[in-house]
TrEMBL record:
It holds the Pfam family SpoVIF. InterPro entries: SpoVIF. This is Sporulation protein. It comes from [Anoxybacillus] calidus. It comes from the Bacteria.
Length: 84
């Protein structure tokens, strides 16, 4: 894609696209049945999105992901974080 496209997204969202791509790459082979891995991913997404995630919300997200065994991506976690 065009580099200007990503620069426009960065300007509008304040989210560094390199961080998003690095996160996406790390998710490809992650074990989402492992609580430690899931918590780590949630913390990275919160950091990238510049959001604080209360412990109760983190616990709820972790349990949902581990229980449902859904595939995980940046958008899924970001949506969960923003629903607080």
């Amino acid at each position: 894609m065009d580099n200007n496209f990503f620069k426009n997204i960065e300007k509008k969202t304040g989210v560094n696209m390199k961080d998003v791509f690095d996160l996406a790459n790390s998710l490809q082979h992650a074990n989402f049945k492992d609580e430690k891995t899931v918590r780590s991913v949630i913390k990275r997404v919160a950091q990238i999105a510049n959001r604080k995630v209360p412990k109760e919300l983190e616990d709820k997200i972790v349990q949902t992901i581990i229980k449902d065994g859904k595939s995980l991506d940046f958008s899924t976690i970001a949506n969960m974080i923003n629903k607080k």
